[in-house]
Amino acid sequence: MVRHSSDKKAKTSVDKATQKRTQRFLWELVRPYKWRLLGGSLMLVVSAGAMLALPQYLRHMFDTALRTGDKAQLGVLAGMMFGTVLVMVVSIFARTWLIQYSSTSILAELRRRLANTLLMQDVRFFENRSSGELVSRMASDTTSVREFLHMAAPQLVRGIFLGLGTLLALLYTSPSLTLVLVVACLPIALIGRFLGTSIRSTVRQQQDNMAGFGGALEEAVANIRTILAFNQQPRLMADMEERTQDMQRVGNRLATIRSGFVAVNVVVGFSALIGVVWLGGVRVMEGAMSLGDMMAFLLYLAFAADAAGNITNFWPAWQGVLGSTERIIGILDSKPEIAEPKKAKALPVAKGGRGIVLKNVRYVYPARPDTAALDGLEMAIAAGQNVAVVGPSGAGKSTLFRLFLRLDDVTEGKLLLDGVDVREAGLADLRRQFALVAQESPLFSGTVAFNVRFAKPDATDDEVWAALKAAHADGFVKALPKGLKTPVGEKGVQLSGGQRQRIAIARAVLADAPVLLLDEATAHLDSESEAAIQAALTTVGKGRTVVTIAHRLSTVKNADVIFVMDKGRVVASGTHGELMKSSSLYKALAAIQLG
Q1: Domain around 37
Q2: CATH number of 438's domain
Q3: What is the pTM of this model?
């Protein structure tokens, strides 16, 4: 029991610390726009003051102008009311513009920070998270913050000023009737405080459910061909149905809490209204209160209800935005595991490629700590060499490229680029040394030119065409409806697999990096295209270091050196002819693939 109490206190302490940090974060967002927001708040005070003046005009109309039949005074009062309404309209416009401008700017800043944070993360960050969840946080959570700043916060300010002014006006008009209202409002305030925490946790759960649904839907759309090919639509539909039901259940719970809160407000509010009307009517009949005072009091009562609604609705909205902001902070707090060195070491000038040396390298995937993908790997690649890496699936070949690009760091050992440990080089400088063509090289949903220029945004059309020619892609690009300006569709769906791969090769050619990494780069091409690409890569590879990962030995027979990998180690190396004599594993692979 004592332990349970201690755990509960610790959790409460953590929740309070989290809430304080969330509040500080929101204040940091708001601070640059504080003067605009204060100006908007001032306009709220002006509009509230104008509203409070209207019942007094009405009271004078009933008790003075109408009772005495003074048409001139009635006209003056009507004109003053109209002027007050104009003041109220202008202040409402100014308030809306100032607050909406600020909230829109804050939304843009928040999304900018999120986008910058995401783009600075390493690959592992995205491998461990659903893209749908990240999109949800960029969209719904940030919008929730904007709506709070745009609606709930101004309504609170308006409710406070209007409520205080109305309370004073009500006390001035009838202290006894005002006492009835104050007593009636206490239950509403207490219930709002009680329900706030429940609403906060429920809103957060709903946002999590929406993120999960968005991720599953995005994944289904991205893999629709596979789904259709295996006729798995019913299973995916059942999964979507389950997720939808979860969202509906949480949404219903949230709706029940909010609806109950509204229902209590209505019951208490109308009960107070009926009591005030009855008591006020009795006082008017007894002559203790004028009809004008009664009309003014009822109008103030409507204002009080409006102010009370603004104030009581703030607490649930505040709890909801805290939940959304906590999720946003969760992303902004993320730090890439692959960090920049404190003092980056400059790489020497590249001369005919780069030399790559791996010394006793061991690498373990975090998700599989008991199994080493690379274990005691030794490899030396001279600058300008054309080398190939072969071996059975799971030998650790693709892991090499992740380490070259420092998408992951070695667990033990060293990886040197021209004698410099890659962990000591600046990330941008390091990655500029490599141009990668992966087995699946996705394209962006822009034009052909945009995708090729992705490696060098300032490249001229002539340079783009030269890269396409080197990749043997210029022929089909010229045949496209708009040539370089032809849109390729999302992920390049308007092109065939071979065409997409040749665009990716052209992109790598344009990068003009000292080291060209080819990860099964010709796997999706037919034999004729593969031969053409190999010839092109032979030309492109001159003066560069070329490292090729391949299962098809026909693509690596002419390499200067072939490294044979198995179980995370280099078990043999040499030319094709040498390995056919010295390596039983290579000979077995060749027997299967070359016949």
Answers
A1: 14-332
A2: 3.40.50.300
A3: 0.67
